[in-house]
Design brief:
Helix content is 60%, strand content 1%. By secondary structure, it is mostly helical. Helix 4 crosses helix 9, helix 4 crosses helix 10 and helix 9 crosses helix 10.
């Protein structure tokens, strides 16, 4: 078969035939075709990677239906994480802007002297101005109000709401060491090096969730720093869940909502999903419980 990037497209029937030729068992061809008609073949085969053999086929007995279950688990896990990460991100926005406003004033973020790298600060300002102008263009009420009443001067507690999570991370990382430490130790009780690393990792995980990227059996490209007494691997999704445990508030919502939903999801798919592929140890629940 042509392995060049310009190989001709295949029909859904051809895709199913190729899977069966490569030792994927299919109990219900109609069901399998309906899945392939709604799920890109390239995306689907990503979930087959744990079963792939060196000769470009799949382990004998690999079930099409099981792979669909793994995909469904992954999809629901992304949705669960997005909700949890939203709370983590909003709290970070609040704490960072609150500290900065009280230390340097509402417009202090415009001053390069309050940051480590002037070039990075300038790029940050350009991204903020672009986001604010876009909000004004789309007649967002807060943007219209500040452009008309304050000539476009947005205090940090307004500007922080148009930052992407990635921009917020870069804003924090470009703050001076004592400022980063004041937030990390004062709010989260951790050294600032850890909070900076955790922010970068969570931005990466959040973007994977937002773009429907596979989480199952996926190595994290941005690995968070973990404490020396932790025996967890930092290259799988569980590491991101572990650091969220330290950043999430309130505790009751973490235990009674997120953890309960996560446990329920894992129980629902336990026959088909190997959570060690996500870095989950056997005692994962006790590790994540607060």
């Amino acid at each position: 078969m042509d392995s060049s990037p310009n190989k001709p497209p295949t029909t859904f029937q051809d895709q199913l035939a190729l899977l069966t030729q490569r030792h994927v068992t299919v109990k219900d061809p109609r069901f399998a075709l309906s899945i392939l008609m709604n799920l890109n073949y390239y995306r689907f085969t990503g979930y087959l990677l744990p079963f792939k053999t060196p000769d470009n086929t799949y382990l004998a007995g690999t079930s099409f239906e099981r792979v669909v279950q793994i995909y469904e688990f992954d999809r629901k896990l992304r949705n669960l994480l997005i909700g949890m990460l939203e709370s983590v991100e909003i709290r970070l926005r609040t704490q960072i802007s609150y500290y900065f406003a009280h230390k340097y004033g509402g417009l202090g973020y415009l001053e390069p002297a309050y940051f480590r790298n002037e070039r990075v600060h300038q790029k940050f300002l350009e991204s903020i101005q672009s986001a604010l102008k876009d909000a004004h263009k789309h007649r967002e009420l807060f943007a219209v109000h500040h452009f008309e009443k304050y000539q476009g001067h947005f205090p940090i507690w307004v500007a922080v709401e148009v930052m992407s999570f990635g921009t917020l991370s870069k804003f924090y990382m470009n703050m001076h060491g004592p400022d980063r430490s004041a937030i990390a130790k004062g709010v989260y009780k951790i050294p600032h090096q850890y909070l900076g690393s955790w922010l970068e990792c969570l931005v990466y995980v959040r973007n994977m969730c937002a773009h429907y990227t596979r989480l199952y059996d996926k190595e994290l490209k941005i690995k968070p720093l973990l404490f020396s007494d932790s025996d967890l691997n930092n290259d799988r999704l569980f590491a991101a869940a572990f650091i969220c445990k330290r950043l999430f508030e309130p505790i009751t919502e973490w235990n009674n909502t997120f953890l309960l939903n996560l446990q329920s999801l894992i129980d629902q798919y336990q026959e088909d999903v190997d959570i060690s592929r996500l870095g989950f140890p056997q005692n994962w629940l006790s590790i994540l419980k607060r």
